[in-house]
């Protein structure tokens, strides 16, 4: 019965402190929402992916090759460990469009209803029956509004063909539609995949009973490396270009990297919010115990044990945690469903596996309960030391003494009375001052990241297309040509600047680590690349040796001066060791670079080019993309325009993160300020008797807050930079490298936003000051 009375007292106390209770609940709420939502979404996405792969029989390995006869493929199936191997033809061609339509490149991929690997997931129409019928990838069909029965006109070997759309489908190979490693954000409708009959493409390009791509399913993934080595030896004579394992396949890598990042975020960000809430609860209960000193003495004199008193105050923490956990888990599950839907649409997944994972509700509840109960016990621990006999008397006032600044007479004499009160209060309540200051610092740190993220996307894409790459057009030929082709091309387009290039896949090996990447050969003093060292010093390509992008060097664990083995897929060329002469910054993609003359000498044929870079103000895409030897024409401006569209989409996610940071900041500042007022109620009431108005008192609190804000932001700047560096190091992938540099502009925006959060909390504080009861505050009473 007595405990019930204590519970009523607790609920009454919580009602009086509802502002602090709600603010603390919100901080926990955000942490649990993120914990539940991100974990559930990661599992949903992973399960959806696995189910989709199983249904479509997604291969374990993809082989790009110059040309291999069908009968030789059957011989490869005899390799121990290979379950199934199938051939196909891939050919990239320009899509012929009307004058008012956007140009596009399409990748023609052969399919056969009798083949079992990498099956398309048909959503509209039927499978191909006639020779010139095709199935269009769903994403490309939506981007260009392609319907069943529409005609697609393509240029193959200098000859035009009209293809009829019989179906629209998804493909596990193109969950994220990317043309190559460089086009992380492919322009909508500019690149697509079209599936056609084998006979049609074989006859059109002269590949009778021959293939240039292999799909391989293996029995045990543990044998992957052994099978890969055997295939490299056997396929070398057929012009092996590259062997790509499933884990390195572009589309799969994008999705799997996103799942990994979701898991990392779900295990780090909620910890920040729960940790801050624990600190807030601990401080609040500590202040409650200090204010309830006499009440605790009475309770103990009535027979309540230390355990009973601890439980009483810990219940405050537990109730807040339990309520926030339940609401947060439900909201997190709802958000997980929405996020899963968003990801399946973003990644072009036709299936959706979305379940309720009750374990995260239970784990979230126990996690929150453990954190809040621990914080409650930490805050209430001083109640154990309170003796009933001593608690009956008011606590002896602290011994007053001059603070250090009072000894600096010249400085102290110039301060007004209110400023002296402010400075004394800061020095005499160091714990509270440090708590609020660190609260501001953490708020700044958490707020900095979303603004950095927005700036990062801008610099990553815009700086890459236009900063790192200086060309207007990137032209790729259907096959390696003689350098004279560059002169012929320039006679057609009359470019301001034109340079030939060699871009060819090689396997670069360092010890047990290896990576298949495109080595790009350009002039050592090329006008089309702005190479910078890791120290951001501009540099040219060396005349000999090889230059690696930062992410490639990191993956291979090599430094300048090391030698790497470049394994050549060209049949008559030997593998060579090449010295790493420089490591450069590259935001997108993973590449190696060489002087084109040196590359001709040791890796490929002399006077060979595989494409060209062009600088011109004249639109040339339509003029040359139908050329017999032109495989694709990439416009850098198209990529920049796509980036700008993507930036608009990221604003919503950045806004959400800023709101979460605001909740965190508000929870810290509001709770700390309210505790400050509660502890100093008698002091403020005394000041009112001395003639101070409530506005004067608010100004004093404002002055304290300004000092704590300035110091908190000063501490928050290096903390924020360290957090960004940590996140960048954790989230960098092989496809992109994030620069941890935070500009002064971002710091200014973060400062302004942090100050807005503090101002909002002060507005609520002003309401509390206006409710101060002068006479009631001066009474000594027991609640």
TrEMBL record:
Domain (ABC3 transporter permease C-terminal) ranges: 268-386, 657-772
Cellular compartments per GO CC: plasma membrane
Location relative to the cell: Cell membrane
Keywords: Cell membrane, Membrane, Transmembrane, Transmembrane helix
Membrane-spanning residues: 21-38, 269-290, 316-337, 357-380, 433-452, 649-672, 706-724, 744-766
Tagged with keyword Transmembrane: yes
InterPro entries, per the entry: ABC3_permease_C, MacB_PCD, Macrolide_Exporter_MacB
GO molecular function annotations of the record: transmembrane transporter activity
Topology of the protein relative to the lipid bilayer: Multi-pass membrane protein
Entry keyword annotation includes Nucleus: no
Pfam families xref list: FtsX, MacB_PCD
Residue ranges constituting the MacB-like periplasmic core domain according to the UniProt record: 21-232
Primary location recorded for the protein, binned into one broad class: membrane
Family per record: Belongs to the ABC-4 integral membrane protein family.
Name assigned to this protein: Peptide ABC transporter permease
Species whose genome carries this gene: Anaeromicrobium sediminis
Species classification: Bacteria, Bacillati, Bacillota, Clostridia, Peptostreptococcales
């Amino acid at each position: 019965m007595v405990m019930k009375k204590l519970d009523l007292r607790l609920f009454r106390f919580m009602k009086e402190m509802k502002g602090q209770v709600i603010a603390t609940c919100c901080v926990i709420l955000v942490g649990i929402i993120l914990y539940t939502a991100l974990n559930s979404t990661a599992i949903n996405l992973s399960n959806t992916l696995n189910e989709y792969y199983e249904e479509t029989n997604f291969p374990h390995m993809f082989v790009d090759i110059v040309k291999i006869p069908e009968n030789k493929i059957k011989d490869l199936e005899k390799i121990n460990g290979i379950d199934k191997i199938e051939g196909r033809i891939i050919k990239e061609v320009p899509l012929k469009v009307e004058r008012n339509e956007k140009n596009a490149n399409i990748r023609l991929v052969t399919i056969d209803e009798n083949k079992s690997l990498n099956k398309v997931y048909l959503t509209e129409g039927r499978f191909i029956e006639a020779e010139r019928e095709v199935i269009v990838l769903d994403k490309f069909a939506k981007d260009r509004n392609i319907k069943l029965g529409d005609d697609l006109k393509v240029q193959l070997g200098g000859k035009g063909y009209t293809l009829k759309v019989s179906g629209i489908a998804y493909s596990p190979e193109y969950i994220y539609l990317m043309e190559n490693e460089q086009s992380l954000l492919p322009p909508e409708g500019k690149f697509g995949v079209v599936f056609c009959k084998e006979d049609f493409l074989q006859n059109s390009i002269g590949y009778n009973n021959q293939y240039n791509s292999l799909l391989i399913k293996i029995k045990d993934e543990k044998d992957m490396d052994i099978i890969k080595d055997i295939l490299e030896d056997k396929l070398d004579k057929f012009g092996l270009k590259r062997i790509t394992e499933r884990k390195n396949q572009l589309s799969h890598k994008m999705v799997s990297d996103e799942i990994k990042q979701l898991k990392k975020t779900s295990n780090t960000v909620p910890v920040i919010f729960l940790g801050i809430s624990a600190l807030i609860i601990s401080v609040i209960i500590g202040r409650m115990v200090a204010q309830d000193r006499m009440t605790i003495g009475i309770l103990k004199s009535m027979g309540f044990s230390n355990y009973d008193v601890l439980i009483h105050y810990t219940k405050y923490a537990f109730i807040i945690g339990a309520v926030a956990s339940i609401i947060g888990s439900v909201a997190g599950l709802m958000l997980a469903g929405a996020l899963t839907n968003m990801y399946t649409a973003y990644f072009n997944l036709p299936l959706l596996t979305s379940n309720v994972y009750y374990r995260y509700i239970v784990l979230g509840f126990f996690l929150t309960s453990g954190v809040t109960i621990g914080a409650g016990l930490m805050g209430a621990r001083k109640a154990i030391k309170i003796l009933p006999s001593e608690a009956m008397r008011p606590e002896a006032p602290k011994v007053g003494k001059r603070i250090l600044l009072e000894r600096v007479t010249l400085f102290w004499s110039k301060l007004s009375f209110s400023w002296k009160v402010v400075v004394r209060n800061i020095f005499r309540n160091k714990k509270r001052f440090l708590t609020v200051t660190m609260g501001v610092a953490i708020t700044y740190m958490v707020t900095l990241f979303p603004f950095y993220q927005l700036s990062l996307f801008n610099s990553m894409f815009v700086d890459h297309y236009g900063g790192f790459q200086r060309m207007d057009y990137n032209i790729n030929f259907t096959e390696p040509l003689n350098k004279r082709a560059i002169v012929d091309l320039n006679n057609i387009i009359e470019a301001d600047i034109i340079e030939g290039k060699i871009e060819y896949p090689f396997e670069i090996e360092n010890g047990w680590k290896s990576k298949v990447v495109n080595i790009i050969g350009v002039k050592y003093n090329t006008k089309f690349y702005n190479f910078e060292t890791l120290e951001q010093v501009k540099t040219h390509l060396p005349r000999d040796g090889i230059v690696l992008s930062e992410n490639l060097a990191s993956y291979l664990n090599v430094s300048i001066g090391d030698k790497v083995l470049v394994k050549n897929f060209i049949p008559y060329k030997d593998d060579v060791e090449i010295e790493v002469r420089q490591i450069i910054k590259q935001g997108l993609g993973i590449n190696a670079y060489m002087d084109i003359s040196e590359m001709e000498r040791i890796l490929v044929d002399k006077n060979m080019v595989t494409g060209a870079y062009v600088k011109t103000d004249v639109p040339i895409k339509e003029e040359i993309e139908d050329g017999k030897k032109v495989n694709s024409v990439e416009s850098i401006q198209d990529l920049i325009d796509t980036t700008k569209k993507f930036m608009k989409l990221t604003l919503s996610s950045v806004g959400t993160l800023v709101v979460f940071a605001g909740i965190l900041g508000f929870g810290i500042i509001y709770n700390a300020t309210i505790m400050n007022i509660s502890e100093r109620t008698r002091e403020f009431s005394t000041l009112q008797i001395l003639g101070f108005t409530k506005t004067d008192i608010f100004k004093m609190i404002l002055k304290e807050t300004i000092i704590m804000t300035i110091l908190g932001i000063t501490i928050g700047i290096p903390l924020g930079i360290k957090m960004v560096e940590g996140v960048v190091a954790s989230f960098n992938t092989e496809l992109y490298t994030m620069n941890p540099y935070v500009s002064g502009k971002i710091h200014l925006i973060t400062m302004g936003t942090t100050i807005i959060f503090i101002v909002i909390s002060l507005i609520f504080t002003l309401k509390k000051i206006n409710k101060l009861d002068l006479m009631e505050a001066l009474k000594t009473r027991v609640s």
